[in-house]
């Protein structure tokens, strides 16, 4: 048991599952901090590979397959989330074009001050 945080560099299902919960992420780098759960389910990896392959040609099928992957991993619980951070932005009424990005928090270069 321990604490670990993960944030994908691209918002896709594969970017969350493959680097940290696939057999490849465990066996290729067993001393890495990527797969701390030491989780490996070859059947699930096959399903994830199908989902990844369908991503460009059949997005609806890919979403259905990724949902199955998510359900299986959630039920097996190699990770148990204890928190989900969120940010709250407070700005003056003089600030315009305030925007947030899921990956980079506040987009300072897009704001202006009157």
Describe the structure.
With 114 residues, the chain is mainly alpha-helical. The protein has two domains: 13-76, no CATH class; 84-114, no CATH class. Helix content is 42%, strand content 7%. The strands form two sheets. The chain has a two-stranded antiparallel ribbon. A hairpin with a 3-residue loop joins strand 2 (100-101) and strand 3. Helix 3 (42-57) runs antiparallel to helix 4. The longest helix is centred in the middle third of the chain and has 18 residues, at 59-76. It is elongated, with a radius of gyration of 18 Å. It starts with 12 loop residues before the first helix and ends with a strand. The mean pLDDT is 84.
Descriptive keywords:
7% strand; mainly alpha; two-stranded antiparallel sheet; 114 residues
Write the topology of this structure.
Layout: H1 13-21, H2 23-27, H3 42-57, H4 59-76, E1 95-96, E2 100-101, E3 105-106, E4 112-113
Antiparallel strand pairs: 1-4, 2-3
Helix pairs in contact: 3-4
Q: Structural class from helices and strands? A: mainly alpha
Query: What is the total number of structural domains?
Result: 2
**For the largest beta sheet, what order do the strands appear in spatially?**
1-4
How much of the polypeptide forms β-strand, as a percent range?
Answer: 5-15%
Number of H/I helices:
4
Q: Report how far the terminal alpha carbons are from each other.
A: 50 Å
User: Biggest sheet: strands, sense, closure?
Assistant: 2 strands, antiparallel
**Which consecutive residue ranges, at least 5 long each, have pLDDT under 50?**
none
Mean pLDDT: 84
- Radius of gyration over alpha carbons? 18 Å
Rough shape?
Answer: elongated
The number of distinct β-strands equals 4
User: In which range does the helix fraction lie?
Assistant: 40-55%
Secondary-structure element string: HHHHEEEE
């Amino acid at each position: 048991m321990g604490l670990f945080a993960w944030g994908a560099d691209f918002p896709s299902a594969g970017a969350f599952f493959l680097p940290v919960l696939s057999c490849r992420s465990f066996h290729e780098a067993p001393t890495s901090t990527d797969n701390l759960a030491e989780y490996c389910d070859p059947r699930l990896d096959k399903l994830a590979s199908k989902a990844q392959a369908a991503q460009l040609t059949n997005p609806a099928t890919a979403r259905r397959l990724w949902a199955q992957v998510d359900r299986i991993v959630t039920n097996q619980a190699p990770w148990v989330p204890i928190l989900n951070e969120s940010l709250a932005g407070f700005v003056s009424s003089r600030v315009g074009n305030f925007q947030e990005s899921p990956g980079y928090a506040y987009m300072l270069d897009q704001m202006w001050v009157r």
